[in-house]
């Protein structure tokens, strides 16, 4: 069974040196955050490593099970969940007015990385609850908020998001579930699929957020409303009482995340309460999308780190072969072989890049929400909007590579389930699909985030990258020079990409959409390289000041590895993008 | 449950137009092959599609099961196996003197693609038998050959390869199993792991080929001998009689290939017969390596084609969203979306490239074995030796991408096991590991295949590629011009790679080994692009002659897609390779 040790030193490095913890702490209400941060991470790390991680293995633990009376949570999850709730972790970054701890998203993001790394199946439950909390918090009436939020923020009740139907996946315009008014509420009917943690026995109530259509609603996306349908209706005292007519009729047999029940829910005249105004449900969903997508991007990061930890530990233990050029003498642990190091550094450097991208984005979320200067807040929001599809698409796609390398480092043992490496690959595989597939993120990136503002937000980012290039030019040594050379190419590629997208989005939309995934991956590689270059600059200054050479040298070398071994992909992706989608569209269906 | 339709038209196209079926047919004994080929493929396609493919699904079929009395083969496999044996498929490309059909490797390769695509777990059984046949055929005494080969060639008995031990995986120098002489035989003892089809109930005997050390053997690779240890010893009439003391003590719980029992075998003074001379066992294993690695490369191809067929069928059926730019009107099957086409063409074009690389290599195997001209045979063998690590490494690594895209095309349904897409990803994951990991292939490529002859064999290949570039220059049209532009860059990258490997292998071996995987992947992308360019040239000529425009236009467009969207990876891999492994080796173990 694999263990998990939260990388607290690295998390604090990223928060402090790259993601502007000081700036976040200067926002109103966050003054104490720098003093709290390390202690919070230490405590979260204990829960993650000691309680959640040991329950993660598919081997030796029973996953979620369907019964006619409802879903039974995976072995050990219920106890762990209540430790999680009692520790106050569920509402860490929720507002204090609803019993949350009111801490910044930056700190919440680091704890979420831990939950996801320790046990992705488990962590999906509070993640979905958070989405439901946001929907109610931002859009529901004060009455609904008062009735549901405190228990959801504490974690005593969990939440779900009911969007998908068999004919309506990426395309929610096709939602068919119906809601018929009856007195002060509605009767909701329809079948929802792929409902994560849609039913379970860990808590006494589960609050479903459900997209459905009113009888007179217009067709398409403009006729979808949002409802709260609790599993148990509340009595006059606000306690769960009568069972609502929503049933889990089956759970999916999935490739991974076996501890997370993925439910088919049947609503049959279930009592539901309208959230906000009619026909605005899809818009309400979009308001919480940034956070949900950031969290799935974090899953790509988290499971990559977990896979790296396991592979590294195996590479240090497993003895096989001799070092290159040595035909006799002692055999070596496989970490002595260059190719194993290539794989480990590909895992490590990309994981660190993902962390830096995610945490900096979380900081901008805090600034966007809490800055008292409107222009600062607006600029931060623009950065968040630009980065979210990159964080989600790039981190989850690279997570496939990293978890697969984790298997490869183990050789034949990686293919044996008991080792645990294969589970990370299986678990990670969902992350490029749910909460908007990679193509959905990519379309969002090229369309709403780059073309829509004529490349303005991207231009601001590029200027910051160019400032880093200037800092690199002024810094001494081979390593930073090598990083600068590669990053210069990368920034050039990203700039040219932006110009190409802006120029082609309207006249050649199919070309841009056909290349959108390549475009967002290019952006991810460059953003990752930029963040690691920033880390190398910080490390370089620390080294000059004589601080912790082992830690900071590793930061410089990791950044150089990424710059030389991975960042060159950006230029070839640009070559690819610029050819457009003509060949893709030229084949008839029969010619495939 | 997914179906499988053997791509016979494409197979014949590759055999005839790219892999030189005529040249093979001109070899002694193969005169009738061109007349037979289509009929053989049709019959094989029926067995693969109608018998083997329906048994492939993990969902709804019981996999291999261990019992104290031995392994019970997966549901339905025994009946299917006997149809396979009775059809004469097992010995298709085995010599006629041992009851084989004596057909060329080129044709055998196409049938193997079908078995692997239809049911990889099943196909591993005859694949391993073939390895054991080769070992006995080339190295054992006439007496052992007479006793074992006819039943193994017919398939009445199966064979296994017992190499790996817990401490000896990629590094076979660490093998510890012992063989003590006793009369005309030896008593073999030791534990072997990861023995594919190491035990089962489909046939009345299983013939184990086992690596072990004689009591006085030197240490390391020069002290390993090869033994035949049948599950049942033969009586005076050559029939299986007394049970030998080899037991399957467990089978692995694996990520995929659940129909293929992966056994731990315990040999306790098991009767074994020495193959060839003492201490030469590892060398004997190497003589059959090219074929085994070609066949695992074929698995990468086969499972990619299977994943493509399933994804294509889903993409044509699944309706979701509207075409780009259309905000109203009919929804479209997802094959109408540019990104789905990008994914399908990434799958299709790479699958076709893998097929062309594998089949041309198989043709060279036939020439190397059967040409009456020694220089021709030697040149063909040099090409085989160069190509084998590329076929194995590149096809299996790309197979990971293709099967993962197969999941992605399905969206959420891809994560549900019943769909079948996830199984292909799980099954494919072993192919980069067994029969020599990708790093082992890569080291073989840069060391024995490129540096060893100073780049001579690679130079011959590059000259053929340059001749294709000249043909492309003389051909009309945008498509071939675009292919030429990209392939020119690719060939330049491969040439520079070769020079770098030759120049650096001795002075900077760690740099070369650290970049070896990137090097072999670069070679794979360029070889694939070259073969598709050759296909485009043939197709262009056929189109000019007015033949089957739908088929041949698709060939040109597929080649152009690959040239524009995938081949640019070669140049960025070259940039990567040339930086060497310095950053990888610079970190201490503690800095990881």
Automatic annotation (TrEMBL), chains A, B:
Pfam families attached to this UniProt entry: Acyl-CoA_dh_1 (PF00441), Acyl-CoA_dh_C (PF12806), Acyl-CoA_dh_M (PF02770), Acyl-CoA_dh_N (PF02771)
The Acetyl-CoA dehydrogenase-like C-terminal domain, residue ranges: 461-587
Source superkingdom: Bacteria
Keyword Flavoprotein: yes
Location of the Acyl-CoA dehydrogenase/oxidase N-terminal domain: 78-156
Keywords: FAD, Flavoprotein, Oxidoreductase
Cofactors, names only: FAD
GO molecular function: flavin adenine dinucleotide binding; oxidoreductase activity, acting on the CH-CH group of donors
UniProt keyword annotation of Phosphoprotein present: no
EC number, UniProt record: 1.3.99.41
Residues annotated as domain Acyl-CoA dehydrogenase/oxidase C-terminal: 279-444
Domain spans labelled Acyl-CoA oxidase/dehydrogenase middle: 161-269
Coiled-coil residue windows: none
Reactions this protein catalyses: 3-(methylsulfanyl)propanoyl-CoA + oxidized [electron-transfer flavoprotein] + H(+) = 3-(methylsulfanyl)acryloyl-CoA + reduced [electron-transfer flavoprotein]
Family per record: Belongs to the acyl-CoA dehydrogenase family.
Its biological purpose: Involved in the assimilation of dimethylsulphoniopropionate (DMSP), an important compound in the fixation of carbon in marine phytoplankton, by mediating the conversion of 3-(methylthio)propanoyl-CoA (MMPA-CoA) to 3-(methylthio)acryloyl-CoA (MTA-CoA).
Protein name per the record: 3-methylmercaptopropionyl-CoA dehydrogenase
Organism: Plasticicumulans acidivorans
